[in-house]
Amino acid sequence: MVIKVVFFLSVILALTIGTHLLFYKAVIHVFAVTSPVLKTSLLVMLILLALSFMASFFLLQWQENPLTIGLYKFSATWIGLFLNLLPAVLASWIIIAAVRIFGIDAPSRLIAAVCIVSAVLYSAYGIWNAFHPRIKKLEVQFENLPDQWKNKSIVQLSDIHLGHFFGTEFLNSLIRQVNSLNPEAIFITGDLFDGMAATISHFAAGLDQFNAKKGVFFVTGNHESYVGLNRALNVLKKTKIQVLDNEIIEVDGLQIMGISYPGIGGAHEIRGLEKLPQNSSNKIPRILLFHTPTNIRPKDGDGLDHHFATYWVPDTSFALNKEIGTDLQLSGHSHAGQLFPFGFLTKLIYKGYDYGFHRLSRFAIYTTSGVGTWGPPMRTGNSPEIVEMNFK
Q1: What CA–CA distances, in Å, run from 45 to 25, 52, 179?
Q2: Is the pTM of this model over 0.90?
């Protein structure tokens, strides 16, 4: 397992340094930099920036203090900006070459400057966008929906990532938005906390302010494992949020099932399932809360294999989910790519289930783009959302 981790980190580091070197080459070319001092200074600066995010990750794991937190915030923001700057510079390179093919003396520095400024403005919008979640409204039809839930709205929240970027002020604003919807229930589908934050106990008071008539329910995501599962659960014990850990409960005739990340080995691991049998002629609606838009039974292997499969070769057959009679699965995790153009990648990996509502006969799934962000505090590929779902 250690070899796998080292290999994975080595690949990420190589890609990061390689793309920064490509950016260096492009900048030198389009701006026609010839000064050895400027070239050396730019190269050293970019190599340090390339190393900064991974360095900040390990430094935060070692010790959390204002210096390591500041380095993490700076490096994460830089990565987001860089992901927009690189294609901008490469695009300017292509534009300049294309114009010169037609014999036009292109103002290369002006073209490059316009592309870079556009990338910076685009990144600034992405940062603003990340901290302003929208209300996403939709309706879901159920057979045999109990009267207590007809025309009632629930709120789904996922991937809030409370931590260094999304702090108490953001949480309080989110609570005001959610409570103003007067939901019947609130479902939080994992990654409530960010894995880069060690100190999270101060969020308990705010989290206890979520209000819903029939309760607030939570299942863990991968970041609860990163931040420390016991640490995360101890915070939630100080609130009225109910943690569903591989169990099913009935609330006013609606069955709510919560499966903890990364999943289970079989239906026998779901507590209470045998006490709530389904009658095919009068089936009670069953909602599944699971962090990832995948089958709740992960592939065999160690924890790293599960993690790898979730990210790169997920099981989107939903076989066990359907087998146990799920009517609606609520998930998150993918952030719908978060940054352009990664939405195309998540759509490919999760076979289209990375975002939105999908119905497969009786089984349906909604995957939200989430509320917060991981890494760069930036959303350029989509908007963060608070899901308000009306049951029909």
Answers
A1: 13, 10, 46
A2: yes
